[in-house]
Design goal:
Four copies of one chain form a homotetramer.
Chain A: E1 4-9, H1 17-26, E2 31-37, H2 42-51, H3 63-72, E3 79-82, H4 89-98, E4 103-105, H5 113-126, E5 130-132, H6 140-150, E6 157-165, H7 176-181, H8 184-187, H9 192-208, E7 212-220, E8 231-238, E9 243-249, E10 260-265, E11 268-273, E12 279-284, E13 289-293, H10 301-304, H11 317-332, H12 343-361, E14 367-368
Parallel strand pairs in A: 1-2, 1-3, 3-4, 4-5, 6-9
Antiparallel strand pairs in A: 6-10, 7-8, 7-14, 8-9, 10-11, 11-12, 12-13
Helix pairs in contact in A: 1-11, 4-5, 5-12, 6-9, 9-12
């Protein structure tokens, strides 16, 4: 079975996320990076192609050139991976789908909910696979948590607390990664809520198996002069009546990438932390606490199939990311990959961002979340 | 210098908090338990007196008898400690103050804000010391955190996140400790918000040096049939504009007494967790993380004066509690103890509970917090 | 039931361990400090008595005076607690036993094994209780560990690893606590091995239920000019053939009081750490990991009877110490307290120190450990 | 710059380490797996080739065939990676070197010290690069630790404690991974000491910058019937006089891959743990504790150049492994890679194993370690 061929859009010099996608895509040898438009600047695109060690002829200056050239090759790309800043997502995806290419995209899916709906239309019209790299749902123990909730191990979910603290934007937003994220023209109206809040949001629904139906949002721009939110509190209500809280911040000095989620039901509780991702803590109503180890004897098939090393040999962010690409590869091969975040997740995420921003601006209290 | 003599009100058979107060009060040999009305049932009061090994003659059946008898003794009590359920707090404090006795009381100070204002009147009229046992502000590293914030180590406080998860009321409320806490007649209108939310609230103001000026409260009664809240989310705004979040819950299965607080400023961040109380984590904007150890070389006088063992020899809840009593003893001896929570803290705590309960019931959004 | 009356020997100004014994002894109100010879200097003894708030008349200048005066009182002391440096232990205990007073003593029991044997003779001749404050065996979860090993939860014990790292003597030994510990005339021939190695040794036997039968010792004096060992490695063999390792050091910079022990059998494993004493980790051969919480629902009677606060309210060093005193009080009242370290433990500990020092000096390889 | 082409020896169906080497080698796109003799069984070799998605024609039945066929290709392999059980290491390396191919090999380098010396002769004669995959020295924070020790941050190293507990061989040795490891014919005379003890040994020298000059070994075969050691204690002396302890075990039930190392000097101490590899703890003599984060602002060039994600995005075992391959690729390209373990490390490791096994068998006490 040959490796699938990937064309990358974005990921040029200075973008940390390009190499991350490349490593993740290739980790299981199901996919190979062969081409790309790594920058809208032709020279920078070429330079990036070189750094990725791909055929120089396949580091293209623009999308049209890439699509045409690759179509003409027998070994042309099978899909594109969009890793550029948010405002490029929709145009890139639209063009790729129009060229008959499946799309996997970094999140958030677009800059606005309207764009997301447009995107969903293109995906439906093209009838092609679409994947969204919500990395954290690729962690084996996140999938274990989901499976255990579905199996009723914590009973009826009553409460979900998800926190996503970061501190790297506590000062001035300096550097390529920071600048576009605090610029509404490139990131969309949401800052922190779109950049990391949407990850946290996705995780609550992914693990709990419930949908968020109502939210109360309080977003703030703490750093003087900042034009987008950098500190977010969102209260949640889920479809089954469960209560929830989502905290996301990029001004909490010293926090690195502290995503963590806790779910509580009437029979148990569960805790997972991204920075120590290889354990899952399980509590039961009778007072027992169990530690579940990645790749250990106590984990089920969803998690077991997504680890590559024995227990005690830590896997991390790149491996979780690779699991998303493995799911996407499976879909491209016509297999089932029900845990791959797709266009529905994209729509829900963008609805969440839009609703939160608007409700917060209006101090609107509780508002419904609808897609 | 003789030991101060304490009369206890409440703390009878089955009340875990009575022995806790007794141990805490006596730990530094500044105070001695000598008398008490441990129960409104005379026989149970006597039995408790025996378990405390006090003079049987001084285990009284009611307050009036105690006050009269103790006044008549040369070695009569110097003050009372009120450790009974909330609805007894005001009557007991009123009677003690009327009898000329200083009062130290468990929290919350009363059942309602109106009662708290009445209490404040009695305290003012009596001109006697009043202390409130917000235990967690007795931890050495909480005091270290406060001192460091005051010294500007994290710069201007921008964000405070306090969480107080417990799980022990996730099922039916069974047993002496649980039953009165979920009965509004005895606990007051607040359940979780009064029992533990008020601790979390006090901690935010104690460490940050800021006052909460506005809140948005979302309290829920998750366990079917429960008449008071058991799960609380409260958004906070502080006097300097800082944002805050307070989470408290008693239905988070597996959580024990997980109080933790994080403060972030424009120069640094700080994290403290009650269940591992002997370390304080300090982050600086330039990316350094330092661990401050209780009784270690890096701590200042407020914390250093409140430890009893060398670094690495863990102190805990009882020692923190003892620090509150040490402060109270200092006040009784006419010394300064500016960190002792007193009647102002009592008023603010009860205003917080009342405001949160009312605002949540009315889905009122942001409301001012005034005393 | 009246409180037992304690006379302290040692614990004068500057000795941190005196107040620790006082707090521990009094915590459960079974014992009361009423008298003492706190220093061989009469003035310092008086000053210490004042700081303990005891009757000034009962802060004595020497042992003979104390024993005579207390005997003459109706409310005279019931026992003595010896908390002075090691070289005072034997003379103080001998005198107390001769005066008909039970003894509880800090460890190590004496300075040499010969002295320990002499002490054992006095204890036997007097027919009086003798207790040794191996504090760490007073921790509830240490007792839980012992009970679980005895119940076969980890199967046949095969391996014990105990580590006791400290760093406070990594530089020059400065101050009252440090100076006598590095002076063989006062501490005995063992430095680190006697000060903390003996705690680690006691813990291995206490929890495993096995006796050490052979050792191989490698003691070093790392700090230039030091006259006693400050860094120790000792290999162990237990009576059932189990292997063991004991590491103790006082020159490991940054280590505070890092005592920890791990036991492995053919069915499971167990880990306990003094600096986070309120959890015990349990592993089973089939790959499960369970966290046992102090005062939680999963603990047995030995541990449950030795906690004073609900789960999540940390207890620490002082409470563990108090458990030793509670055992001793029980013995004085004629009750059973099988977990109290006594004269047999004293003998084994001193034999361990003597054997380790001699074997290390002689580079003797494996040698039997006999009492 | 083209990718280097790797031929794998070993790594057939059921061998977890084959895919690990493949992922590690390819992670940075400097190397590509293109060929292999994955099993001595031709059919199994083909099947493995398919699972790796390489050209079926390049999954060879034996070494000679591979070397001949690859030599004949313009795009033939540039080097081999040996990932088979130990007894294949020498013959495979010898043949590869004879065929003019550089070698990177899993550890231990050979089964015996005599073999290692023979290997060293072949490497010297061939004048070709040789690398040894001591994975753990590829972790960024291990390199940070090494750099900090070299820079004098902990002063003169006085003490090194390395522990490598595992539990997976506590029961019967079942399965492909376990069986050969407990068979002296395939693993060599050392069991645990060779499988993991040698990693621990290498780490002590790598970080401390000192060589071990003397050892005292106590190896045991704890599981009944086991023919090689499964539990090891080795005392160490370093070239500068520093003391050391090495603990390795495969029968410590519940331990996964708990490698951890602590180094102490006269100015500071340092702690690193493989299972939480993205932090390094640094202690200073004046009582400060600092946490160093991988990819954080406080790390130096050796570590910074070996991370792929921002701080807080955990990297793990595969990334550390990839760092070894990146070093090896650098060497193949003629660049400097001074941290790559090579033939000298191989010789020292095999000398360590041989000396430890022999000294333990003879109960020889302290013996010199010479290469």
């Amino acid at each position: 079975m040959r490796r699938l061929r990937m064309g990358m859009i974005g990921g040029g010099p200075g973008a940390f996320i390009g190499p991350v996608h490349r490593i993740a895509a290739e980790m299981d040898r199901e996919i190979e990076l062969v081409a790309g438009v790594f920058s809208s600047d032709a020279g920078r695109s070429r330079a990036a192609g070189e750094s990725y060690r791909i055929d120089p002829a396949r580091a293209y200056p623009d999308l049209d050139t890439m699509f045409a050239a690759e179509k003409a090759r027998e070994d042309g790309i099978d899909f594109v991976s969009i890793v550029s800043p948010n405002h490029h997502h929709l145009p890139a995806a639209r063009a790729a789908l129009a060229a008959g290419l499946p799309v996997i995209s970094d999140k958030p899916a677009t800059t606005t909910f309207a764009e997301a709906k447009e995107l969903a239309g293109h995906v439906a019209a093209a009838g092609l696979p679409y994947g969204l790299t919500h990395t954290y749902s690729g962690y084996p123990l996140v999938r274990e948590a989901r499976a255990r909730v579905a199996a009723g191990q914590i009973g009826t979910v009553r409460k979900v607390v998800v926190e996503y603290p970061q501190g790297w934007l506590a000062g001035e937003a300096v550097g390529k990664q920071a600048e576009w994220r605090v610029d509404p023209a490139r990131s969309g109206p949401g800052g922190c809520i779109g950049d990391i809040g949407t990850h946290a949001f996705q995780l609550t629904e992914f693990i709990s198996g419930q949908e968020v139906t109502e939210i109360l949002a309080d977003l703030g721009a703490v750093v003087p002069g900042r034009q987008v939110d950098d500190d977010c509190t969102v209260l949640l209500r889920f479809s089954n009546g469960a209560r929830g809280v989502l905290l996301a911040s990029q001004i909490e000095v010293g926090e690195m990438n502290g995503l963590r989620i806790r779910l509580y039901g009437d029979k148990g509780g569960m805790v997972w932390k991204q920075e120590v991702p290889n354990t899952l803590t399980l509590h039961t109503l009778d007072g027992r606490t169990e530690i579940i180890h990645a790749a250990g004897t106590q984990i089920g098939p969803d998690a077991a199939s997504r680890t590559r090393t024995p227990t005690g040999h830590p896997e991390g962010y790149l491996e979780a990311f690779a699991n998303i690409y493995r799911d996407f590869a499976a879909v491209l091969r016509g297999e089932e990959a029900p845990l791959l975040p797709g266009i529905d997740t994209a729509l829900r995420g963008m609805a969440f961002i839009a609703t939160a921003v608007e409700a917060s601006n209006n101090r609107a209290g509780w508002v419904p979340l609808t897609v």
